[in-house]
Amino acid sequence: MFDIGFAELLIVAVVALVVLGPEKLPTAARAAGLWIGRIRRTLSGIQNEISEELRIDEMRRTAAIKKEELDKELAEMRTPFGSESSYSPFGDSVSSPEELQSKQQKAEHESPSENSIAPPAQEETPSSGTETGTSETGTKAEK
């Protein structure tokens, strides 16, 4: 800051001794030291406040940038699948649960067509030695 060497300090001390005299020099040096200490503490406090404000400002900027990134990601997550692009690995066969349920209900109400697969009709077969659906004079199913 100040480029004051030992020679300059010695000259200031000799001039102060001549001007103030040996009786007032110790009190003047003490008062000068107190003033210098107060000035240093004040400047140190100001520097700390400035650095703290700069740190807070940097944190606010960083938080704003992170918030924008998170908002962008959230907006991307909220968009439904397929609205951004028409590509789907399943093609057009993907249906919502509501669509599947309505298709299933329609299929239950319609009669089975030739293209639909119906379960085979089960014939009644005798089970464990009992005859079903026949009389004593009728045809008996053999085991």
Describe the structure.
The protein is an all-alpha fold and 143 residues long. Helices cover 60% and strands 0% of the residues. The protein contains two helices and no strands.
List keywords for this structure.
single chain, mainly alpha, 2 helices
Mean pLDDT: 78
Specify the helix fraction band: 55-70%
Helix-strand topology string: HH
Shape: rod-shaped
Number of helices: 2
Question: Which spans have pLDDT < 50 for at least 5 consecutive residues?
Answer: none
- Taken as a percent bin, the fraction of beta residues is under 5%
* Main sheet properties: none
* Rounded radius of gyration (Å): 49 Å
How far apart are the first and last residues' alpha carbons, in Å?
116 Å
Structural class: mainly alpha
Number of strands: 0
Short summary:
Helix content is 60%, strand content 0%.
